[in-house]
Amino acid sequence: MNILISGYAYIRENYFKTFRFYPEPNSVFFLLPKIWKAKDGRIIFYPPKEPNVFVSKAYFYHSRYSLIGGLLKGWMPAFPLALFKIRKKIDIVYSPSEPILLTTLYQGFWAKLLHKKHIIFTWENIRYENKFRGFNLLFKKIIIKLNLLLSDGVVCGNRKAEDIFKKMTKKPIAVIPLSGVDADFFHKVNAEDFLETHGLKDKLIFSFAGAIGYRKGIHNIIYAFKKVLPALPNAHLVIAGTGEYEESLKFKVKSLKLDQNVTFIPWLNSAGLRNLLSASHIFLYPSISYGGWEEQFGYSMAEASLMELPVISTLSGSIEDIIVNGRTGLLVKPNDQDSLEVAMIKLGSDQELREKMGQAGRQYIVDHFTYKIIAGKFYEFFKKINLHR
Protein backbone atom coordinates (compact mmCIF):
# COMPACT_ATOMS: atom_id res chain seq x y z
CA MET A 1 0.00 0.00 0.00
CA ASN A 2 1.81 3.10 -1.29
CA ILE A 3 0.62 6.64 -0.57
CA LEU A 4 1.24 9.88 -2.45
CA ILE A 5 0.75 12.95 -0.26
CA SER A 6 0.34 15.96 -2.52
CA GLY A 7 0.05 19.57 -1.36
CA TYR A 8 1.78 22.47 0.34
CA ALA A 9 0.85 21.52 3.94
CA TYR A 10 3.65 18.99 4.42
CA ILE A 11 6.39 21.29 3.17
CA ARG A 12 6.73 22.40 6.80
CA GLU A 13 9.33 20.26 8.53
CA ASN A 14 7.28 19.83 11.71
CA TYR A 15 4.35 18.47 9.66
CA PHE A 16 6.49 16.37 7.31
CA LYS A 17 8.19 14.75 10.29
CA THR A 18 4.97 12.98 11.27
CA PHE A 19 5.46 10.48 8.44
CA ARG A 20 8.95 9.57 9.61
CA PHE A 21 7.04 7.69 12.32
CA TYR A 22 4.73 6.00 9.82
CA PRO A 23 4.78 2.19 10.33
CA GLU A 24 5.85 1.69 6.69
CA PRO A 25 7.84 4.89 5.90
CA ASN A 26 9.16 3.56 2.59
CA SER A 27 5.60 3.37 1.26
CA VAL A 28 4.97 7.12 1.55
CA PHE A 29 5.82 9.59 -1.24
CA PHE A 30 5.35 13.36 -1.35
CA LEU A 31 4.70 15.89 -4.10
CA LEU A 32 5.50 19.30 -2.61
CA PRO A 33 5.95 22.84 -3.96
CA LYS A 34 9.49 23.91 -4.86
CA ILE A 35 8.91 26.88 -2.59
CA TRP A 36 6.06 27.98 -0.35
CA LYS A 37 5.52 31.54 0.91
CA ALA A 38 3.59 32.09 4.12
CA LYS A 39 2.63 35.19 6.12
CA ASP A 40 2.62 37.38 2.99
CA GLY A 41 6.06 36.17 2.04
CA ARG A 42 7.66 36.87 5.41
CA ILE A 43 8.25 33.15 5.98
CA ILE A 44 9.59 30.90 3.22
CA PHE A 45 9.47 27.10 3.29
CA TYR A 46 11.43 24.69 1.12
CA PRO A 47 10.74 20.95 0.78
CA PRO A 48 13.10 18.48 2.43
CA LYS A 49 15.58 16.85 0.06
CA GLU A 50 14.76 13.17 0.47
CA PRO A 51 14.41 10.28 -2.03
CA ASN A 52 10.65 10.01 -1.53
CA VAL A 53 10.02 13.73 -2.13
CA PHE A 54 9.11 15.08 -5.58
CA VAL A 55 8.76 18.81 -6.21
CA SER A 56 6.70 20.96 -8.53
CA LYS A 57 5.98 24.62 -9.05
CA ALA A 58 2.96 25.80 -7.07
CA TYR A 59 0.79 28.88 -7.46
CA PHE A 60 -1.52 30.98 -5.28
CA TYR A 61 -0.01 31.25 -1.81
CA HIS A 62 -2.97 32.68 0.11
CA SER A 63 -6.75 33.13 0.01
CA ARG A 64 -7.11 36.84 -0.79
CA TYR A 65 -6.83 36.93 -4.58
CA SER A 66 -9.33 39.02 -6.56
CA LEU A 67 -12.27 37.04 -7.95
CA ILE A 68 -10.90 33.57 -7.12
CA GLY A 69 -10.15 34.12 -3.43
CA GLY A 70 -8.46 30.93 -2.20
CA LEU A 71 -10.06 28.50 -4.65
CA LEU A 72 -6.72 27.61 -6.26
CA LYS A 73 -4.49 27.86 -3.21
CA GLY A 74 -1.45 25.61 -3.63
CA TRP A 75 -2.35 24.56 -7.20
CA MET A 76 0.39 22.49 -8.85
CA PRO A 77 -0.42 22.24 -12.57
CA ALA A 78 2.13 19.44 -13.02
CA PHE A 79 0.32 17.13 -10.57
CA PRO A 80 -1.11 14.79 -13.26
CA LEU A 81 2.27 14.43 -14.96
CA ALA A 82 3.97 13.63 -11.65
CA LEU A 83 1.28 11.11 -10.71
CA PHE A 84 1.43 9.51 -14.16
CA LYS A 85 5.19 8.98 -13.84
CA ILE A 86 4.88 7.12 -10.53
CA ARG A 87 1.37 5.68 -11.02
CA LYS A 88 2.56 2.06 -10.79
CA LYS A 89 3.91 2.72 -7.30
CA ILE A 90 0.85 4.50 -5.91
CA ASP A 91 -2.38 3.07 -4.47
CA ILE A 92 -3.81 6.12 -2.69
CA VAL A 93 -3.49 9.88 -3.23
CA TYR A 94 -3.96 11.95 -0.08
CA SER A 95 -4.66 15.64 -0.74
CA PRO A 96 -4.27 17.60 2.52
CA SER A 97 -6.29 20.53 1.16
CA GLU A 98 -9.85 21.59 1.87
CA PRO A 99 -12.82 20.16 -0.08
CA ILE A 100 -13.91 23.73 -0.78
CA LEU A 101 -10.92 24.23 -3.13
CA LEU A 102 -10.60 23.66 -6.85
CA THR A 103 -7.03 22.59 -6.08
CA THR A 104 -8.42 19.53 -4.29
CA LEU A 105 -10.87 18.83 -7.10
CA TYR A 106 -8.05 19.00 -9.66
CA GLN A 107 -6.11 16.33 -7.80
CA GLY A 108 -9.18 14.21 -7.20
CA PHE A 109 -10.10 14.24 -10.91
CA TRP A 110 -6.66 13.06 -12.02
CA ALA A 111 -6.38 10.53 -9.21
CA LYS A 112 -9.63 8.85 -10.28
CA LEU A 113 -8.72 9.09 -13.98
CA LEU A 114 -5.56 7.15 -13.19
CA HIS A 115 -7.55 4.67 -11.05
CA LYS A 116 -6.16 5.75 -7.68
CA LYS A 117 -8.11 6.07 -4.46
CA HIS A 118 -8.34 9.63 -3.20
CA ILE A 119 -8.51 11.00 0.35
CA ILE A 120 -9.24 14.62 1.18
CA PHE A 121 -8.66 16.63 4.36
CA THR A 122 -10.60 19.35 6.17
CA TRP A 123 -10.18 21.51 9.25
CA GLU A 124 -13.60 23.11 8.75
CA ASN A 125 -15.42 23.34 12.07
CA ILE A 126 -18.16 25.82 11.09
CA ARG A 127 -21.09 24.77 8.92
CA TYR A 128 -20.77 26.27 5.45
CA GLU A 129 -24.30 27.68 5.71
CA ASN A 130 -23.06 29.82 8.59
CA LYS A 131 -20.18 31.21 6.52
CA PHE A 132 -21.55 31.83 3.04
CA ARG A 133 -24.75 33.07 1.39
CA GLY A 134 -26.48 33.01 -1.97
CA PHE A 135 -24.58 32.09 -5.13
CA ASN A 136 -21.30 31.95 -3.20
CA LEU A 137 -22.69 29.20 -0.95
CA LEU A 138 -24.21 27.34 -3.92
CA PHE A 139 -20.94 27.44 -5.86
CA LYS A 140 -18.90 26.23 -2.91
CA LYS A 141 -21.38 23.44 -2.16
CA ILE A 142 -21.02 22.22 -5.74
CA ILE A 143 -17.23 22.05 -5.33
CA ILE A 144 -17.59 20.21 -2.01
CA LYS A 145 -20.04 17.70 -3.46
CA LEU A 146 -17.77 17.05 -6.43
CA ASN A 147 -14.79 16.58 -4.12
CA LEU A 148 -16.76 14.16 -1.96
CA LEU A 149 -17.94 12.32 -5.07
CA LEU A 150 -14.34 11.81 -6.22
CA SER A 151 -13.05 10.93 -2.77
CA ASP A 152 -12.84 7.56 -1.07
CA GLY A 153 -12.50 8.96 2.43
CA VAL A 154 -12.23 12.15 4.47
CA VAL A 155 -9.71 13.05 7.16
CA CYS A 156 -11.14 15.62 9.60
CA GLY A 157 -8.66 17.62 11.65
CA ASN A 158 -11.02 17.99 14.61
CA ARG A 159 -14.23 16.54 16.04
CA LYS A 160 -16.47 19.39 14.90
CA ALA A 161 -15.35 18.83 11.31
CA GLU A 162 -16.31 15.19 11.72
CA ASP A 163 -19.80 16.20 12.88
CA ILE A 164 -20.23 18.40 9.80
CA PHE A 165 -19.00 15.87 7.24
CA LYS A 166 -20.89 12.91 8.68
CA LYS A 167 -24.03 14.74 7.54
CA MET A 168 -22.59 15.23 4.04
CA THR A 169 -21.19 11.82 3.14
CA LYS A 170 -21.42 8.13 4.01
CA LYS A 171 -17.80 7.56 3.01
CA PRO A 172 -15.24 6.63 5.70
CA ILE A 173 -14.17 9.47 7.99
CA ALA A 174 -11.30 9.67 10.48
CA VAL A 175 -10.45 12.42 12.99
CA ILE A 176 -6.73 13.06 12.58
CA PRO A 177 -4.95 16.46 12.61
CA LEU A 178 -2.54 17.19 9.75
CA SER A 179 0.41 16.46 11.97
CA GLY A 180 1.44 15.30 15.39
CA VAL A 181 3.76 17.19 17.74
CA ASP A 182 7.29 16.41 18.82
CA ALA A 183 7.25 15.20 22.42
CA ASP A 184 10.97 14.38 22.29
CA PHE A 185 11.91 17.92 21.29
CA PHE A 186 9.45 19.94 23.35
CA HIS A 187 10.68 19.55 26.89
CA LYS A 188 12.07 22.08 29.32
CA VAL A 189 15.63 23.32 28.72
CA ASN A 190 17.82 25.79 30.58
CA ALA A 191 16.31 29.22 29.90
CA GLU A 192 18.87 31.38 31.70
CA ASP A 193 20.29 32.85 28.48
CA PHE A 194 16.82 33.67 27.17
CA LEU A 195 15.82 35.32 30.45
CA GLU A 196 19.01 37.35 30.63
CA THR A 197 18.88 38.41 26.98
CA HIS A 198 15.36 39.78 27.37
CA GLY A 199 15.77 41.10 30.91
CA LEU A 200 13.17 38.73 32.35
CA LYS A 201 14.90 37.18 35.36
CA ASP A 202 12.65 36.74 38.38
CA LYS A 203 9.55 37.57 36.33
CA LEU A 204 6.29 35.64 36.23
CA ILE A 205 6.03 35.16 32.47
CA PHE A 206 2.80 34.91 30.54
CA SER A 207 3.47 34.14 26.89
CA PHE A 208 1.70 33.93 23.55
CA ALA A 209 3.28 32.46 20.40
CA GLY A 210 1.70 32.18 16.98
CA ALA A 211 0.32 34.21 14.10
CA ILE A 212 -0.30 37.83 15.11
CA GLY A 213 -3.82 38.33 13.83
CA TYR A 214 -6.98 39.84 15.26
CA ARG A 215 -8.64 36.41 15.47
CA LYS A 216 -6.07 35.21 17.99
CA GLY A 217 -7.56 37.59 20.56
CA ILE A 218 -4.18 39.00 21.65
CA HIS A 219 -5.73 42.43 22.23
CA ASN A 220 -7.80 40.83 24.99
CA ILE A 221 -4.60 39.58 26.63
CA ILE A 222 -3.19 43.12 26.69
CA TYR A 223 -6.28 44.69 28.24
CA ALA A 224 -6.61 41.89 30.80
CA PHE A 225 -2.90 42.05 31.59
CA LYS A 226 -3.23 45.73 32.48
CA LYS A 227 -5.67 44.72 35.22
CA VAL A 228 -3.59 41.70 36.29
CA LEU A 229 -0.49 43.74 37.13
CA PRO A 230 -1.72 45.22 40.46
CA ALA A 231 -2.36 41.65 41.72
CA LEU A 232 0.82 40.21 40.17
CA PRO A 233 3.34 43.09 40.02
CA ASN A 234 6.22 40.83 38.90
CA ALA A 235 4.25 39.59 35.86
CA HIS A 236 5.57 40.10 32.35
CA LEU A 237 3.90 39.40 29.00
CA VAL A 238 5.83 38.06 25.98
CA ILE A 239 4.16 38.09 22.55
CA ALA A 240 6.06 36.10 19.92
CA GLY A 241 5.15 35.89 16.25
CA THR A 242 4.44 37.93 13.17
CA GLY A 243 1.34 39.06 11.32
CA GLU A 244 -0.78 41.94 10.11
CA TYR A 245 -1.89 42.94 13.62
CA GLU A 246 1.57 43.61 15.10
CA GLU A 247 1.61 47.40 14.83
CA SER A 248 -1.90 47.73 16.24
CA LEU A 249 -0.93 45.63 19.27
CA LYS A 250 2.24 47.64 19.84
CA PHE A 251 0.16 50.83 19.76
CA LYS A 252 -2.22 49.38 22.37
CA VAL A 253 0.69 48.48 24.62
CA LYS A 254 2.10 51.98 24.32
CA SER A 255 -1.25 53.69 24.89
CA LEU A 256 -1.79 51.61 28.05
CA LYS A 257 1.74 52.49 29.24
CA LEU A 258 2.79 48.83 29.34
CA ASP A 259 6.06 49.25 27.43
CA GLN A 260 8.09 48.01 30.40
CA ASN A 261 5.80 45.07 31.03
CA VAL A 262 5.35 43.63 27.52
CA THR A 263 8.01 42.25 25.17
CA PHE A 264 7.46 41.57 21.47
CA ILE A 265 9.62 38.90 19.80
CA PRO A 266 9.63 38.11 16.05
CA TRP A 267 8.52 34.73 14.68
CA LEU A 268 10.44 31.93 16.41
CA ASN A 269 11.76 28.69 14.98
CA SER A 270 11.22 25.51 17.01
CA ALA A 271 14.36 26.00 19.10
CA GLY A 272 13.44 29.61 19.85
CA LEU A 273 9.91 28.62 20.80
CA ARG A 274 11.22 25.94 23.15
CA ASN A 275 13.42 28.56 24.85
CA LEU A 276 10.49 30.91 25.28
CA LEU A 277 8.24 28.19 26.67
CA SER A 278 10.98 26.97 29.01
CA ALA A 279 11.15 30.49 30.45
CA SER A 280 7.38 30.89 30.67
CA HIS A 281 5.00 30.00 33.49
CA ILE A 282 1.62 30.28 31.73
CA PHE A 283 0.68 30.12 28.04
CA LEU A 284 -2.10 32.35 26.70
CA TYR A 285 -4.11 31.72 23.54
CA PRO A 286 -7.49 33.53 23.77
CA SER A 287 -8.66 32.78 20.22
CA ILE A 288 -11.96 34.29 19.06
CA SER A 289 -14.46 33.76 16.26
CA TYR A 290 -13.75 36.14 13.40
CA GLY A 291 -14.76 36.40 9.75
CA GLY A 292 -16.34 32.94 9.58
CA TRP A 293 -13.37 31.28 11.25
CA GLU A 294 -12.81 29.65 14.63
CA GLU A 295 -9.68 27.96 15.97
CA GLN A 296 -9.28 24.63 14.20
CA PHE A 297 -6.56 22.98 16.29
CA GLY A 298 -3.86 25.10 17.91
CA TYR A 299 -0.40 23.56 17.60
CA SER A 300 1.11 26.26 19.82
CA MET A 301 -1.16 25.13 22.65
CA ALA A 302 -0.20 21.49 22.15
CA GLU A 303 3.50 22.39 22.24
CA ALA A 304 3.00 24.55 25.33
CA SER A 305 1.30 21.61 27.04
CA LEU A 306 4.26 19.39 26.14
CA MET A 307 6.43 21.98 27.87
CA GLU A 308 4.29 21.46 31.02
CA LEU A 309 2.69 24.88 30.88
CA PRO A 310 -0.94 25.38 31.88
CA VAL A 311 -2.84 26.99 29.01
CA ILE A 312 -5.44 29.72 29.27
CA SER A 313 -7.60 29.74 26.16
CA THR A 314 -11.22 30.11 25.12
CA LEU A 315 -14.35 28.02 24.60
CA SER A 316 -14.11 28.57 20.87
CA GLY A 317 -13.76 26.41 17.77
CA SER A 318 -12.00 23.12 18.42
CA ILE A 319 -9.82 24.20 21.33
CA GLU A 320 -11.49 21.63 23.60
CA ASP A 321 -9.86 18.93 21.46
CA ILE A 322 -6.50 20.15 22.80
CA ILE A 323 -7.14 21.67 26.23
CA VAL A 324 -9.13 19.86 28.90
CA ASN A 325 -10.82 22.62 30.91
CA GLY A 326 -9.89 22.51 34.58
CA ARG A 327 -7.37 19.73 34.03
CA THR A 328 -4.72 20.92 31.57
CA GLY A 329 -5.72 24.56 31.48
CA LEU A 330 -8.53 27.05 31.89
CA LEU A 331 -11.01 27.92 29.13
CA VAL A 332 -12.96 31.18 29.29
CA LYS A 333 -15.63 32.75 27.09
CA PRO A 334 -14.22 34.42 23.95
CA ASN A 335 -13.77 38.20 24.19
CA ASP A 336 -14.39 38.09 27.95
CA GLN A 337 -11.51 40.16 29.33
CA ASP A 338 -12.77 39.95 32.92
CA SER A 339 -12.80 36.13 32.87
CA LEU A 340 -9.39 36.15 31.22
CA GLU A 341 -8.08 38.40 34.00
CA VAL A 342 -9.50 36.09 36.70
CA ALA A 343 -7.92 33.02 35.06
CA MET A 344 -4.53 34.77 34.74
CA ILE A 345 -4.55 35.79 38.39
CA LYS A 346 -5.72 32.34 39.51
CA LEU A 347 -2.84 30.53 37.78
CA GLY A 348 -0.33 33.31 38.32
CA SER A 349 -0.80 33.14 42.09
CA ASP A 350 -0.86 29.34 42.45
CA GLN A 351 2.39 27.58 41.55
CA GLU A 352 1.12 24.19 42.71
CA LEU A 353 -1.91 24.40 40.39
CA ARG A 354 0.32 25.51 37.49
CA GLU A 355 2.58 22.50 37.96
CA LYS A 356 -0.35 20.07 38.32
CA MET A 357 -2.03 21.32 35.13
CA GLY A 358 1.27 21.44 33.27
CA GLN A 359 2.08 17.82 34.04
CA ALA A 360 -1.45 16.72 33.11
CA GLY A 361 -1.20 18.71 29.88
CA ARG A 362 1.98 17.01 28.77
CA GLN A 363 0.55 13.57 29.47
CA TYR A 364 -2.64 14.38 27.55
CA ILE A 365 -0.73 15.48 24.44
CA VAL A 366 1.66 12.50 24.67
CA ASP A 367 -1.31 10.14 24.83
CA HIS A 368 -3.20 11.69 21.91
CA PHE A 369 -1.10 13.87 19.58
CA THR A 370 2.54 12.81 19.27
CA TYR A 371 4.05 12.06 15.85
CA LYS A 372 3.88 8.35 16.48
CA ILE A 373 0.23 8.43 17.55
CA ILE A 374 -0.86 10.50 14.56
CA ALA A 375 1.24 8.51 12.07
CA GLY A 376 -0.36 5.32 13.38
CA LYS A 377 -3.85 6.77 12.90
CA PHE A 378 -3.04 7.70 9.30
CA TYR A 379 -1.70 4.21 8.67
CA GLU A 380 -4.86 2.56 9.98
CA PHE A 381 -7.12 4.85 7.96
CA PHE A 382 -5.14 4.44 4.74
CA LYS A 383 -5.29 0.67 5.24
CA LYS A 384 -9.06 0.86 5.73
CA ILE A 385 -9.48 2.90 2.53
CA ASN A 386 -7.23 0.55 0.57
CA LEU A 387 -9.38 -2.44 1.59
CA HIS A 388 -12.69 -0.60 1.25
CA ARG A 389 -14.81 -1.44 -1.79
Features:
single chain, 389 residues, alpha/beta, Rossmann fold, seven-stranded parallel sheet, 13 helices, globular
What do these coordinates show?
The protein contains 13 helices and 15 strands. Helix 3 packs parallel to helix 4 (134-150) and helix 7 packs across helix 11 (337-348). With 389 residues, it is an alpha/beta fold. It has 2 domains: 3-179 and 370-387, Glycogen Phosphorylase B (Rossmann fold, 3-Layer(aba) Sandwich), CATH 3.40.50.2000; 192-367, Glycogen Phosphorylase B (Rossmann fold, 3-Layer(aba) Sandwich), CATH 3.40.50.2000. The strands form 3 sheets. Strands 5-2-1-6-7-8-9 form a 7-stranded parallel β-sheet, with helices on both faces. The two termini are 15 Å apart.
> What structural category characterises the helix and strand content?
alpha/beta
Number of helices: 13
From the spread of the alpha carbons, the general shape counts as globular
Helix content: 25-40%
The strands making up the biggest β-sheet line up spatially as 5-2-1-6-7-8-9
Radius of gyration using CA atoms only: 22 Å
Count every beta strand, where a strand is a DSSP E run of 2 or more residues.
Answer: 15
- Give the N-terminus to C-terminus distance in angstroms: 15 Å
Name given to the CATH architecture of the largest domain: 3-Layer(aba) Sandwich
CATH class membership of the largest domain = Alpha Beta
Overall domain count = 2
- The proportion of strand residues reads 15-25%
H and E order: EHEEEEHEHEHEHEHEHEHEHEHEEHHH
According to CATH, the homologous superfamily of the largest domain is Glycogen Phosphorylase B
The whole-number mean of residue pLDDT values reads: 96
Largest sheet: 7 strands, parallel
Low-confidence stretches: none
CATH T-level topology of the largest domain: Rossmann fold
